[in-house]
Fold:
Amino acid sequence: MADCVFPTRTARFGLAQHRPEDLLRSQCMGIGYGEDLLVCAALGVDMADCVFPTRTARFGLALTFDGHVNLRLSKYSEDYNVIDLDCPCPTCDNGNENGKGLTRSYLHLLASRETVGAHAVTLHNIAYQHRLMKGAREAILEDRFPKYLKTFFKRFYHDGSNYPSWAVDALRSVGVDILEDQPGVIPRANSDPQWDPAA
Ligand SMILES: [Zn+2]
Structure:
């Protein structure tokens, strides 16, 4: 997991710019939502840890770049796609090519009845976070982190009016405007997470 530790160049975007270059400057405990992790990285946090990906898996919640997927909802009972076709985790792997991945429909059954369902979703959620933060690390090293942030928020929330204002304001404080290409859009003041709608 060493490639998930943010490089020291994170400092250029954040609060830790005056710390020694050869030291990890800060660890933030208890943050696990994708948007929280990315905003904290932009503010200079180098490491983070949280129970979020495993705890939410026990509740049948799968994390994806397109939003949360609550596998307990009945709308997934006949969804024969894997959680994420692009995910390399053992739960999704080969779902696209060979049909070996576990479908959302199957996970819907497991999530309510069998512990193994939580294990399967945990594997996926850990892989999601690894992909998310590995992508952030690579974007920082390649001087394209602001674009990475904009791409993430647009895909996750679809529309700027769904962006939480706290995230928009925090990123603007370090020079990144994720609403730059959506002029006139006002982000929502409500900071509650956006969960998967039932219908
Ligand atoms: Zn997966």
Remarks:
- The chain has two domains: 2-52+126-172, 54-116.
- Residues 1-13 have pLDDT under 50 and may be disordered.
- Helices lie at 34-42, 52-58, 104-113, 115-141, 145-157, 165-172.
- Residues 83-84, 87, 89, 91-92, 124, 127 surround zinc ion (CB under 6 Å).
